[in-house]
């Protein structure tokens, strides 16, 4: 979806995906080293970035929507934490290589043709030995209708993800149902793919 779409979507006064972090990120945050440098991809209004900053991490939130990132900064200020932001198209522009100890992405949905670049971008942004944590909707999410894209071309196939992540150590990989109540856009049981990946040393 376009920058204009997301700018318009995030222009509402409310935080459309809520202000609380994604449950998977909350559950897996203990894997992260203390005071880690974290790249938060497709971070929108900043709920996960702000949560991780509150745990003492140094977080940069990346998203193509400047409106979303402005709301992320407002949320951080309200909760008395600090984050950095960078507006960029993560399907075309590279995040600085090996600039983070970990990268996260929660429901970062892009067309099929852009998905390989996005995941390569995620992995190259992390130092060797660092971590990638992600949760996305699978193609089966269309059967549930509880959030996410309305067309299969912007959802994920687990086989594709395993192929892209294969060179690295897969510590956790889940394909199945999860209950998510995140603002007004994720509203119940859905079908997700989760991963915790450790980047192999060169």
Automatic annotation (TrEMBL):
CDD domains: AdoMet_MTases. Pfam families: Methyltransf_25. The keyword Kinase does not apply. Residues 42-130 form the Methyltransferase domain. It comes from the Bacteria. GO terms for molecular function: methyltransferase activity. GO terms for biological process: methylation. Keywords: Methyltransferase, Transferase. This is Methyltransferase domain-containing protein. It comes from Bhargavaea beijingensis. The lineage of its organism: Bacteria, Bacillati, Bacillota, Bacilli, Bacillales.
